[in-house]
């Protein structure tokens, strides 16, 4: 099937500053891709190249089957690309219906009226058709901007941080509504965000960008659970890193065995706070010799192993439903652990720290994540070494 959007070798620099570097990306029809990365990594430039607001220095942009930049140049208004920006960008002097009609230039008036009514219905705003933008809430303005982008039935909609100007309480709701509309209409979309939760919840796939390239492209589960690099591990969620080295049973870090692999001498273990179990030392000693915690109200519950590494709580952050505990291990390294809201160990509490059972953490060799073991346990045939 033809991709909805395909970028090949796309590059753009501003003077000596590279913004997008030989980037390849293919987005399938009906897919929602979340693009995430730190400020200045080239997300907006990428959207602007797709929209036709910038010309690439090299490479090709294809919208559907049509080359719109590269060997040909199609101006923004003829690209079949819809845009939704952070600041809504509605025309203040035009009523909602006329804001939406704006993108339907060239269609017969009755067709315009029908389409305006249809997209307003889609975003549940038929009742505000005659209002001016300043008579709408921020969330309503954002939905009008979406309706306007969808009205000409674009091949792909680009959303540049569309929820970041909304306050926290509204953001999740407008985000859900927006995704529902995109899904209901089978719209292909690229959402730029710097918010990892937004990327993880909205994207069918996530592209993690760094310095003009996509460092990892994958499903939310892949980028969160199998990051390809230290950068992705750190950017997509909280991560702590502990050194590990080869022991009798495989790779061992301060918390214990982290991998049965024996083909690596040293590595670093990536630990997410939900993968780290805690038990106050008094409780831990009460259950010594068993394999599960007897104190289900504390850290890790029966997920926790009985004995772990000794540590002391150095910081406790109450987040409402969960409480983030930071602990310092004997080595001086710190790790963090999410606990249910009922667990609030005081700073200075002695604890035992272990890996939540069943966790297979990612391993880093320098900046890159180590791949699977070259000697898999299954019957997967090994390729003969040509040398
Ligand atoms: P992001 O959207 O990820 O924050 P941008 O695409 O805005 O990143 O920027 C990528 C790089 O290009 C940054 O180094 C930025 O300073 C530079 N840049 C972006 N737009 C311009 C411009 N119009 N002129 C000069 N440099 C720019």
Overall shape: globular
CATH topology of the largest domain: Rossmann fold
**Total number of domains:** 2
Distance between the termini: 40 Å
What sequence of helices (H) and strands (E) makes up the elements?
EEEHEEEHHHEHEHEEHHEEEEEHEEEEEE
Strand content: 25-35%
Q: What would you say the CATH architecture of the largest domain is?
A: 3-Layer(aba) Sandwich
Output the strand order for the largest sheet. Answer: 6-7-8-3-9-10
Q: Total number of helical segments?
A: 9
Please give the share of residues in helix: 10-25%
Q: What is the highest CATH level, the class of the largest domain?
A: Alpha Beta
Radius of gyration: 25 Å
The overall strand count is 21
Largest sheet at a glance? 6 strands, mixed
CATH superfamily of the largest domain: P-loop containing nucleotide triphosphate hydrolases
* Low confidence ranges: 288-306, 375-387
Average pLDDT level: 88
Give the class from helix and strand content and strand pairing. alpha+beta
Bound molecules: adenosine-5'-diphosphate
In short:
The chain is an alpha+beta fold.
What can you see in these coordinates?
This protein is of the alpha+beta class. Helix content is 22%, strand content 33%. The protein is built from nine helices and 21 strands. The radius of gyration is 25 Å and the shape is globular. Bound molecules: adenosine-5'-diphosphate (ADP).
Please supply descriptive tags for the structure shown above.
Rossmann fold; six-stranded antiparallel sheet; 9 helices; disordered C terminus; alpha+beta; 387 residues; 2 domains; binds adenosine-5'-diphosphate
